[in-house]
Amino acid sequence: MSNPRIYIRPEDIDTIIDIKDINVVHKTKNVLRLKINDKISIFDGKGKEFLYNVEIIKKDIITVKKEKLLKEHPMCKNRITLGFPLVKEEKISIILQKSTELGVHEFIPFVCQRSLKDEPSSKKKNRWDRIICEAARQSQRLWVPRIKGLVSFKDIVKFDYKLKLAASINGKTVGNYVNDDSCEILILVGPEGDFACSEYKLLEENCFKFIKLGANILRVETACIFSAGLVQYLIN
Fold it and tell me: Domain 5-72 is in which class?
């Protein structure tokens, strides 16, 4: 049986760690129910995972001691960045959670004509980070995806990637563009009601390939998860 697993920021990894984050302490004590001398796996989100021994358990702090390196993997060269329009919070939670499980490397929320427009609060951004970290922990990932700040549609279409894909009902199947040699891939999914005509023009002008995700019109969160899964399958 595998050891319980938690995430600790790479700058906090040391021989001895005093875990003070209230959420991690709660999870370790009350959910995982660890005791003194139990083993715990700690990953740093940058490709490394270590085995630690639980040394001290107090009300608001847990001290662990490093025993050995368990795993170390370099960053994969086949990396997927998912650009999604700003939508309702519950949909963003699903996009981040499921796409992290599917191996997305980076997320970029953007604003377009038919998306929401409000800049996310710092509280929301912190929540997004927690969702991503928890999904990475649960799915046994060693690398935690990054999420960039909100950008405009005009900016995101100009970003430099080796392969740029946009979901469209009139596109071609994804296998026309993606294979196991593909790397540094940007996928853009449109908002409810699709991209505007002027936005499709910008996509064409900036070398995007249009991919069809099936015969049915999908919700934003479904399209994000499905497109990420398809591309991940093809590159691996």
Answer: mainly beta
